[in-house]
From TrEMBL:
Native source organism of the sequence: Pelodictyon phaeoclathratiforme (strain DSM 5477 / BU-1)
Record-linked InterPro entries: YjdM, YjdM_C, YjdM_N
Top-level taxonomic group: Bacteria
Entry protein name: Alkylphosphonate utilization operon protein PhnA
Residue ranges of domain Protein YjdM N-terminal in the record: 4-32
Residues annotated as domain Protein YjdM C-terminal: 46-112
A Pfam family: Zn_Ribbon_YjdM
Family: Belongs to the YjdM family.
Amino acid sequence: MSDLPNCPKCNSEYTYEVGTLLTCPECAHEWSNSPVPASAKARVWKDANGTILQDGDSVTVIKDLKVKGSSSALKGGTKVRNIRLVEGDHDIDCKIEGFGAMQLKSEFVKKV
């Protein structure tokens, strides 16, 4: 038997290597078998004051922010509830009353 791991998508035991990737013949899923570095696993998001943020936190916008595609700005002091942290340049996904779905940078908010 092979010592390759089962497919993470369909749990098939018939995986095989193609270069540096592992491939599943049943669902055509491809993934890397290399271990993920510890720095990538332990991403920490911090607000403007250095407080650690988590999914579901409430934050306050610390300064007026221009909103692309809108004539009005997002005022400093606006409270945002139930944030979701994501990878990328704008690392907070949220919904703001009066504006709708929006992405914010964690450097422009503080935890409530």
